[in-house]
Design goal:
Elements lengths: L18 H18 L5 E6 L4 E5 L7 H7 L2 H5 L3 H20 L8 E11 L2 E14 L5 E10 L7 E5 L1
Antiparallel strand pairs: 1-2, 1-5, 3-4, 3-6, 4-5
């Protein structure tokens, strides 16, 4: 059975982030919060340094404080057990691909995939997207802008979009 730590592999380990770095990205976080007020998508910021969610929007599926506090346990608590291994594989493959991209193109990286989300006994296919919001000084993904919404697809799908 997957654990939260399984999502954090060598390819997404980020060190050397300071409090000054967090202060520097505060305007980006405020911009994400403003954009989140204009959509019904669930929007959040993944912090790969602290291994949690730095921000979460109002969420039609989950309360915002709950989502932010849940962090990566979201994927273990609300995704069917038989799809959790797929999420780990997408995570690994996505970071493998990200590590091969030239620094100049890293901010253009988008990964999109669908999976089932179960709440109150009801299963829904959701589309999950991630794109870089901030890199560290070594070009590693520090903060990711993430969103999920109901998917128009009936079957799982994963794709990487660059540029």
């Amino acid at each position: 059975m997957p654990q939260i730590d399984d999502f954090f592999i060598d390819k997404n380990r980020v060190d050397g982030i300071t409090e000054e770095d967090y202060e520097r990205v505060q305007p980006k976080i405020e911009a994400v919060a403003a954009a989140a007020r204009t959509t019904t998508n669930s929007i959040y910021i993944i912090d790969y340094h602290k291994r949690n969610f730095l921000y979460s929007s109002e969420n039609p599926m989950l309360a915002p404080v709950e989502l932010k506090d849940m962090g990566y346990s979201l994927y273990l608590d609300y995704v069917p057990k038989e799809e959790q291994a797929m999420l780990l594989e997408i995570n690994r493959a996505g970071f493998e691909e990200f590590s091969r991209i030239d620094l100049a193109n890293k901010m253009e990286f988008v990964i999109s995939y669908d999976f089932h989300f179960i709440q109150n006994g009801r299963s829904r296919m959701v589309n999950h997207r991630l794109t870089p919001l901030a890199l560290n000084s070594k070009g590693q993904l520090w903060l990711a802008f993430a969103s999920f919404s109901l998917s128009p697809r009936k079957h799982r799908c994963a794709r990487v979009l660059i540029g």
